[in-house]
Design brief:
This protein is α+β, with helices and mostly antiparallel strands. The protein has four domains: 95 residues; 156 residues, no CATH class; 126 residues, Four Helix Bundle (Hemerythrin (Met), subunit A) (Up-down Bundle), CATH 1.20.120; 43 residues. Helix content is 31%, strand content 26%. It has nine helices and 18 strands. The strands form two sheets. The protein has a 16-stranded antiparallel β-sheet with strand order 4-7-8-3-2-1-5-6-9-16-15-10-14-13-12-11. It is globular, with a radius of gyration of 28 Å.
């Protein structure tokens, strides 16, 4: 079984179905290619001037609606998210031509309307791992193709039974520009069909956490039983946290530091999908990744926001709600009633409307008085998850607070700032690994050499 690159090489030419989508009077040709940052670049050329005598046509600067196209052999295509960046009209030898350049979010093409049994996403920024499987076969063009080292995960989800994830050889890429660290994920249907985009997005987020790097999606394709493409989409990729080396949260293989154990990864991805909507994990991972390329003055703030998402999700679970309260419900009800009575009596004694309004504010705040403070709850979460807590963890929480409140810091302490961010990065990863029930050794980025430690063990400097 092979994984060939997205079966729609760029650059590619199209016919414009409705020229007024671009503010043109006559139908023209459209060329789609990738820019240096892998974004989809659009160039439209047509005879004549724009529909309004060469002036910009309202509604064509940024098209939120679909633009219909045709491939050169008549297949229908849909361009989404077009944004015009430049326009020019030139007259030469009594012939006028208008050119419009822009960018687009995606292009979709339907090749066949048959039933799909698998789907593939093509990615960029796939980390260099020691993969556990190797595939070699013949490509659709008849040439010998090497489909890349990969791992295979088995999941128990209604629309996802298993997946393969791995790297693609540079020689297979057909984008017309260099693609950094190309890779793929192949999804196989579960009892209720193939995974939709929200589920694929969640699965990618799980891998982004496990890899410690964002994955940009270059395209998507659905395949039939014979592995022929049915429907495909090519798009401008968005790589959370930017390109760069991966920073995995833990050892994911018993023998290789940069390996991926299939059974362990299957359990972690399965668990991630199961609890994502409880903890809003996708939002937390987005912040976690973006901390990597945030200014150092704000990086721990991103991690802190991600940390708070996990904390909120944990203490909103029915079995944990009381842990975030100061008094049990019955006791607090009695206390709150006495406070309410005192405020009402005070309010009745006041002649000033301003004072009455202030008392009313205190009445509205009564409901929040029974909650544990955020700073205390932060340390409590770490303890409740069975994780030990020391100086590095305290530095991480302090850095989170400093960045969230834009507290000043001495530029001479920039190295300490970096250490605190790495401690925060590590602490977030430990908490999420504990939530996912991962029996793993975490990588301590707050210590020199990034040693691996038991998940419960505190972070800190190297110990002999």
């Amino acid at each position: 079984m092979t994984i060939d690159w997205l079966p729609f090489p760029l650059p590619q030419a199209f016919k414009v179905v409705e020229p007024r989508d671009f503010g043109l009077l006559t139908a023209g040709s459209l060329n789609l290619s990738r820019g240096a940052a892998l974004e989809l670049q659009v160039s439209v050329c047509a005879e004549g001037r724009c529909a309004l005598g060469g002036a910009d046509v309202p509604g064509t600067e940024w098209k939120t609606s679909t633009i219909n196209l045709l491939t050169e052999d008549g297949q229908p295509g849909s361009l989404e998210g077009f944004r015009r960046t430049q326009q020019s009209t030139v007259t030469e030898d009594y012939r006028t031509e208008t050119r419009i350049d822009g960018r687009a979010e995606s292009l979709s093409i339907t090749l066949d309307r048959g039933a799909a049994s698998a789907s593939v996403e093509w990615l960029t920024n796939m980390p260099q791992l020691v993969w556990t499987r190797f595939t070699e076969g013949t490509s659709a063009t008849g040439n010998k193709s090497f489909s890349g080292d990969h791992a295979e995960l088995h999941l128990q989800l209604p629309t996802l039974s298993r997946l393969r994830i791995g790297k693609s050889p540079l020689s297979s890429v057909t984008e017309g520009v260099p693609v950094e660290q190309p890779g793929f994920v192949e999804y196989h249907a579960g009892p209720e069909g193939l995974p939709d985009e929200p589920l694929r997005h969640t699965v990618r987020r799980a891998f982004e956490f496990l890899f410690g790097a964002g994955l940009g999606v270059l395209g998507y394709c659905e395949l039939n039983q014979s592995r022929q493409p049915l429907r495909l989409r090519t798009n401008s990729p968005y790589t959370a946290g930017g390109f760069g080396g991966s920073r995995p949260p833990a050892l994911l293989h018993g023998s290789w530091r940069n390996g991926l154990d299939e059974k362990l990864a299957s359990r972690l991805v399965q668990r991630y999908v199961e609890v994502e909507n409880i903890y809003s994990l996708n939002r937390a991972i987005w912040l976690f990744l973006h901390a990597r390329n945030a200014p150092l003055e704000m990086a721990s703030g991103y991690i802190g926001a991600a940390f708070e998402i996990l904390r909120r999700g944990y203490y909103e679970r029915p079995e944990n709600v009381q842990r975030a309260r100061l008094f049990p419900p019955a006791q607090w009800t009695a206390i709150a009633q006495k406070l309410e009575d005192a405020l009402v009596a005070s309010k009745n004694l006041q002649d000033s409307e301003d004072l009455i309004a202030h008392v009313a504010v205190l009445q509205r705040r009564l409901g929040g008085l029974n909650t544990v403070s955020g700073s205390r709850l932060n340390e409590q979460l770490i303890a409740d998850l069975g994780l030990k807590f020391g100086a590095a963890e305290r530095a991480a929480l302090t850095a989170r607070n400093d960045d969230a409140h834009a507290n000043e810091f001495d530029p001479a302490d920039i190295f300490k700032k970096l250490q605190a961010y790495r401690a925060a990065h590590t602490l977030f990863a430990r908490i999420l690994l504990a939530i996912l029930g991962g029996e793993v050794r975490y990588l301590d980025y707050s210590s020199q050499g990034y040693p691996d430690r038991e998940l419960s063990e505190a972070q800190g400097p190297l110990r002999g």
